[in-house]
């Protein structure tokens, strides 16, 4: 099928065309089967065509396909916000709004914090990814390809090192950089918010340092600064918990949601402390398609499936399988380029490095092709595109997961 009518500015990782999928398997238009370790880039924690989600979408489509909530409220939006407010593991009353995507959630969060604080400065982190819209581009902690050729971006935004055991940046180093920022670059009283991923996605599945997270929470409280947690990729069970911020022992003021919120239907949300969400004038938040009834139905079915027991079981089973195989590969020396394993729970990355410790980006490109030819779809991440991010559905059958890891092992052995 020709791509002539598709913008060439869209980068495609796998040059195939998919036809259909079921749970953790997909088939292309030639009939070839693949095991899916991409999951729509973290959208399909419940797999392709989850029966409960499909049935909910089908039923809703016979009742009401669309209504703009800010024109006339509809039941699926109201029901979903009630369910989400109970699903968010914080001790304060939760309010929120639905959006079309995670990036739109981030954009609205910026409006909310400006309205609540009267400040404009945002602090983000190196390696961050918060979206491709104009405002979220400036939050991203990476220039190429996202910020190239687009000119002056909305600001002001400053970046700090992201502290993680996975990248070698310590809590002390990040706090020192933060002290310098407020000593040299910006007055702390001008800062509206920090925005941070509890586990970086695009940045290479790096888990945030717990000590730093708690120090940051205290700093924000002391200086009347809001803390936004971007859970768009790490949320909805990816780490074995509802949300990744829970492992940090903190509560964010605002939380960004998206990706796996609705089983594959476009939907996002920004939720958090009710006074923050209520501070803008009437009409300051909203959107035509935001909280579409069909998307809400998919999200309600998703929440039905994501019980704490299910999330814990799915997360621990996948984590155990991945870590067991990874350590076996290290012990057996299956690949000279095999580096560290990053992330937490079922949100895991595998780093490819050269003998001198530099990123083995060329080998990762080779691995993507080898795996695809062998029937396994993988996704790169990291600043140098040298970290494999594993995003198989949480619901993947154990035998299919092992089959996928067998293919990965065989392809790692072939790297040169």
From TrEMBL:
InterPro entries registered for this protein in UniProt: Aminotrans_3 (IPR005814), Aminotrans_3_PPA_site (IPR049704), Class-III_PLP-dep_AT (IPR050103), PyrdxlP-dep_Trfase (IPR015424), PyrdxlP-dep_Trfase_major (IPR015421), PyrdxlP-dep_Trfase_small (IPR015422)
KW Transferase (keyword) present: yes
One Pfam family named in its UniProt record: Aminotran_3
Entry keyword set: Aminotransferase, Pyridoxal phosphate, Transferase
One function term, GO molecular function aspect: transaminase activity
SUPFAM superfamilies named in the record: PLP-dependent transferases
Residue ranges crossing the lipid bilayer per the database entry: none
Gene3D superfamilies for the chain: Aspartate Aminotransferase, domain 1, Type I PLP-dependent aspartate aminotransferase-like (Major domain)
Superkingdom: Bacteria
Cofactor(s) recorded in Swiss-Prot or TrEMBL: pyridoxal 5'-phosphate
Family per similarity comment: Belongs to the class-III pyridoxal-phosphate-dependent aminotransferase family.
Protein name as catalogued: 4-aminobutyrate aminotransferase
Source organism of the structure: Pseudomonas palleroniana
């Amino acid at each position: 099928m020709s791509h002539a009518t598709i913008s060439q500015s869209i980068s495609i990782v796998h040059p195939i065309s998919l036809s259909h999928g079921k749970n953790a398997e997909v088939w292309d238009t030639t009939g070839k089967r693949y095991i899916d370790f991409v999951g729509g880039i973290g959208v399909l924690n419940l797999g392709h065509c989850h029966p409960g989600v499909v049935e909910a979408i089908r039923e809703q489509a016979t009742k009401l396909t669309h209504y703009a909530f800010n024109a006339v409220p509809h039941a699926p939006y109201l029901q979903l916000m009630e369910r989400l407010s109970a699903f968010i593991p914080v001790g304060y009353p939760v309010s929120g709004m639905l959006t079309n995507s995670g990036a739109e959630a981030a954009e609205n969060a910026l409006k909310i914090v400006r309205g609540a604080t009267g400040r404009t400065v945002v602090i983000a982190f190196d390696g961050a990814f918060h979206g491709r819209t104009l405002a979220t581009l400036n939050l991203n902690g990476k220039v190429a390809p996202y910020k190239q050729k687009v000119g002056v971006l909305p600001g002001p935004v400053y970046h700090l090192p992201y502290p993680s055991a996975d990248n070698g940046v310590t809590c002390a180093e990040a706090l020192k950089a933060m002290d310098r920022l407020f000593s040299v670059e910006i007055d702390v009283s001008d800062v509206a918010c920090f925005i941070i991923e509890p586990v970086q996605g695009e940045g290479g599945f790096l888990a945030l340092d717990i000590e730093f997270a708690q120090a940051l929470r205290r700093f924000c409280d002391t200086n009347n600064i809001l803390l936004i947690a971007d859970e768009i990729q790490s949320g909805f069970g990816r780490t074995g918990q509802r949300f990744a911020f829970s492992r940090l022992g903190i509560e964010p003021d605002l939380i960004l949601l998206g990706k796996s919120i609705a089983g594959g239907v476009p939907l996002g949300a920004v939720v958090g402390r009710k006074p923050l969400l209520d501070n803008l004038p009437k009409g300051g938040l909203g959107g035509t398609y935001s909280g579409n009834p069909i998307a809400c139905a998919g999200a309600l079915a998703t929440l039905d499936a994501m019980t704490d027991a299910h999330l814990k079981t799915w997360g621990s089973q996948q984590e155990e399988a991945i870590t067991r195989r990874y350590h076996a590969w290290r012990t057996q020396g299956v690949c000279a380029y095999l580096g560290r394993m990053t992330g937490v729970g079922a949100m895991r990355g595998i780093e490819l490095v050269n003998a001198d410790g530099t990123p083995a980006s060329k080998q990762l490109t080779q691995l993507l092709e080898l795996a695809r030819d062998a029937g396994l779809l993988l996704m790169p991440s990291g600043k140098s595109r040298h970290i494999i991010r594993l995003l198989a559905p949480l619901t993947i059958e154990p035998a299919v997961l092992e089959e996928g890891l067998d293919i990965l092992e065989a392809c790692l052995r072939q790297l040169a």
